[in-house]
Specification:
By secondary structure, the protein is an alpha+beta fold. The protein is 14% helix and 23% strand. It has a two-stranded antiparallel sheet. The structure holds iron/sulfur cluster (2 copies).
Length: 74
């Protein structure tokens, strides 16, 4: 009998690094985030409004054209 493969542990968010100097407020990251973590504030900068909902998919990091997001996992 073959043993079931151990499940990969889910990545856990350590920190969402948002480089506001590079962010131009285009909103692409917020549009791609599946759990609605990100918002654009009244200064046209990204903000992590609901960081606790982040599932570490890294879509925001991959899609940001200005490389302003770095998703750090534990
Ligand atoms: S995709 Fe990048 S540049 Fe655009 S709002 Fe998000 S962090 Fe800012
Ligand atoms: S890593 Fe995924 S869930 Fe987390 S903020 Fe980015 S797009 Fe949203």
């Amino acid at each position: 009998m073959t043993k079931p493969k151990p499940k990969k542990p889910k990545p856990k968010l350590k920190q969402l690094h948002l480089n506001l100097d590079w962010c131009k407020g285009c909103g692409i990251c917020a549009a791609f985030c599946p759990t609605n973590v990100l918002e654009i504030d009244d200064k046209d900068k990204v903000t992590a409004a609901r960081a606790q909902d982040c599932i570490c998919c890294k879509l925001c990091e991959l899609r940001c054209p200005d490389l302003a997001i770095d998703v750090e996992t534990e």
